[in-house]
Amino acid sequence: MNDSTWQKIVFTDIDGTLIDIYSGKFEGTDLLVKKLAKMGIPVILCSAKTRNEQEYIRNKLGISDPFIIENGGAVVIPDGHFDDFEIGHHTRKNGYSLIEIGGRSSEIVKRLARIREELQINFRGTTDMALNEISRKVRMPLPFAKRMSKREYGETILEIDPSDLGRLARVCTRTGLKVIYGGRYTDITQGNDKGKATRVLIDLFRRKYQPRRTIFIGLGDSENDLPMLKLMDIPVLVQRTDGSWCDSKIKNVVRSDGIGPKGWKNSFNLITGL
Predict the structure, then answer these.
(1) pTM
(2) CA-CA distances (angstroms) from residue 36 to 7, 107, 261?
(3) Pairwise CA distance, residues 45 & 63, whole Å
(4) Residues labelled as active-site residues
(5) N or C: the chain end with fewer CB closer than 10 Å?
């Protein structure tokens, strides 16, 4: 497939895949992303991370491709990447076109406050904590905590008794909220979907690169990546911190040896050799 009739596009999760889930280090994957960019292969970040967090990472990687924020809360497209008429309904913000899929954080936080009172359980999310608390809780410097706190399409639960999580999840689901279990934390969203957001970009890229054929490669590590991976021509799972692979039930999934960034690096030859 290494000819001009094919265009590769890579979708990748961030925490536990592109970077180490605890240290936040790339461990060499940043250099490989830069190589892909030089080869003309778009790299689409598709993560639970906020727009501010992903902007910071994209700047470090030197990439300018579209990206998917907050577990599919919105697709963010830099101006000029696609024609406006192709994007369809969107809003403009700070040099981006936003295709919003999820409900707004302000409404979700209000509903969580009512649920907290109804259930009489204690849990705290990013909006309930000062930045220095978030920084200590997630063991990240203050600037990282600030970027993490700027949620637009959901709330991240940072503190809850594990025995209460099931009750919270049941009530959230019953009231139309969505509970997304990530590698370290639980996100409460409304309508967010990595699969829906991924489908938007797949369709846009196919139109952009026609008559060339597109091949989509996706990399992830956990359950919240599966809606994205199911849409890939080549879905890749890297190992989780305990050495296991997520139970994907995706028939053509590739299980890459190596935890997090090591598994991502071990998939690089697969991406470039297609």
Answers:
(1) 0.93
(2) 12, 39, 16
(3) 10
(4) 13
(5) N
